[in-house]
Amino acid sequence: MTTLRLWADRHGRAYDYVRQFWRTRDGFPAPAGELPSRSRNGGGPGERYYDQAALDQWLAAQSDLQPAPRIDLRVLRIDPEDRITLGRFASLIGKARNTVAQYRDQPGFPRPDADGSYRAGDLLSYWNSRPGRRGPARRR
Fold first, then answer.
1. Tens-digit pLDDT profile for residues 78-112
2. CA atoms lying within 13 Å on the CB side of residue 79
3. Rounded to an integer, what distance in angstroms lies between the CA atom of residue 44 and that of residue 30?
4. How far apart (Å, rounded) are the C-alpha atoms in residues 68 and 132?
5. Global confidence as pTM
6. Which helix (H) or strand (E) holds 33?
7. Which of 10, 43, 63, 113 is buried deepest, with most CB atoms within 10 A?
8. Computed from CA positions of residues 65, 75, 118, 129, in that sequence, does the dihedral angle turn out positive or negative?
């Protein structure tokens, strides 16, 4: 058994997002029970708990909720130390340049060199762990 909060964190998702959007989808497992209230005076409902196996099985059946596949440098056939532009990186991973460039101001995005190029390994590492992709950037 697990709470929705713990399960969401385990899958790298925000609890509020899972609670508001995933829980309302068809087939989402019903809670198995309710924990006692943590309030000092006992007011309000306690947190619901769920069967973890049922939640995992439901998530596995939701193909549109699966994270994007991780990209491997060996598949791209570039050295992690190569210096490349955002445009070159975007073309290597099959995305539009503005899709990659929109992350430039986000925390953890690699900083460019003076000539505007980036280390390929740093870009790929960020891309595979960017927010919303089950990477460390979303884990607490």
1. 899 999 999 999 999 989 999 999 999 888 899 99
2. 3
3. 20
4. 10
5. 0.53
6. strand 33-34
7. 10
8. positive
